């Protein structure tokens, strides 16, 4: 047998890192600003901060991050009412996908905050320069850098950016064996499925579906029995639970948050529906080989700490 290698593209590549800082500012701190020919992001880890990007002023709250593209003027100051903690990372990246981050203020998910924590921790292993000096222009490497530390810094930063880009740009999908993608599906049922996608976070009844789509109850039931082999609400329940499975694999929300996000009346009702459709509880699914094999690789996030007790 003749094996052939597969070329894998690197769609986002960090060329180098300039600075990694974690600052604990006073409530009267002010930095006049700068511009440089590489990327930088500023993230608020505690309190609030006022940030100017060119002529636009913003107030960032905890968990928010702003990206400054190359040669964009930016400054930073405390609001005067609190002492903020700010993370600043600057780096060079010429990948076309970075255009997504231009002029963006985003929020880190739990997973992304964990990855950012790994970046800060690894920076302390890699650099002798203190991370809390806002005027450092060149980070000095330690003489005893652990094996792989420099490479891990790059990989963690690439992982963080890729994770954010995918989370903000990927359209949610509702995988399910119950969904039929064949050409035999009618326009009417496709319209109902689109309606379900738009209301995936709501609790809806057959009456709601009929009223909002101008279709009779018996006609609606017949349509789904013929084209999908199940009832209307059963179909919608499968969509919800399959979306829940996707959210569990992504590992950005715990079970209670997923239950609330998808409009369930309680975590217990969500768990019963999940087990009825999947044959296992949310916790059992999260620990199953299937979920692990499908889960995005985020070693920074320990699922057992996040998911908590069995539900």
Throw out a few tags for this protein.
Arc Repressor Mutant, subunit A, 9 strands, Jelly Rolls, five-stranded antiparallel sheet, four-stranded antiparallel sheet, disordered C terminus, 11 helices, alpha+beta, 311 residues, elongated
Can you give a write-up of this model?
The chain has two domains: 16-169, Jelly Rolls (Sandwich); 187-307, Orthogonal Bundle (Arc Repressor Mutant, subunit A). The radius of gyration is 24 Å and the shape is elongated. The termini are far apart. The protein has helices at 110-126, 149-169, 187-198, 206-213, 217-227, 232-250, 255-261, 267-278, 282-287, 289-294, 303-307, and strands at 16-24, 30-34, 39-46, 49-53, 56-60, 64-68, 74-78, 85-92, 105-107. It contains eleven helices and nine strands. Helix 1 packs antiparallel against helix 2 (149-169) and helix 6 crosses helix 8 (267-278). It has 311 residues and is of the alpha+beta class.
């Amino acid at each position: 047998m003749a094996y052939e290698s597969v070329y894998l593209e690197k769609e986002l590549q960090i060329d180098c890192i300039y600075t990694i800082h974690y600052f604990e500012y006073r409530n009267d701190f002010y930095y006049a600003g700068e511009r440089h020919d590489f990327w930088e992001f500023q993230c608020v880890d505690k309190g609030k901060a006022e940030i100017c990007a060119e002529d636009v002023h913003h107030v960032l709250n905890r968990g928010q991050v702003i990206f400054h593209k190359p040669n964009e003027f930016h400054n930073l100051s405390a609001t005067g009412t609190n002492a903020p903690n700010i993370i600043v990372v600057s780096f060079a990246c010429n990948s076309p996908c970075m255009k997504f981050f231009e002029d963006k203020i985003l929020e880190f998910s739990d997973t992304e905050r964990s990855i950012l924590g790994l970046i800060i921790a690894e920076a302390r292993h890699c650099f002798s320069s203190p991370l809390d000096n806002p005027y450092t222009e060149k980070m000095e490497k330690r003489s005893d850098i652990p094996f792989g530390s420099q490479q891990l810094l790059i990989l963690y930063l690439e992982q963080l950016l890729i994770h954010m880009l995918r989370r903000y740009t990927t359209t949610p999908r509702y995988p399910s064996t119950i969904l039929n993608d064949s050409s035999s599906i009618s326009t009417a049922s496709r319209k109902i499925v689109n309606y379900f996608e738009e209301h995936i976070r709501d609790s809806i009844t057959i009456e709601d579906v009929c009223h909002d789509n101008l279709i009779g109850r018996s006609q609606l039931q017949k349509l789904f029995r013929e084209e999908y082999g199940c009832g209307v609400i059963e179909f919608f329940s499968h969509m919800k639970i399959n979306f829940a499975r996707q959210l569990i694999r992504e590992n950005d929300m715990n079970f209670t948050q997923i239950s609330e996000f998808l409009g369930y009346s309680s975590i217990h009702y969500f768990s019963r529906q999940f087990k009825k459709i999947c044959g296992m509880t949310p916790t059992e699914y999260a620990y199953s080989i299937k979920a692990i094999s499908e889960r995005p690789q985020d070693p920074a996030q320990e699922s057992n700490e996040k998911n908590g007790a069995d539900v």
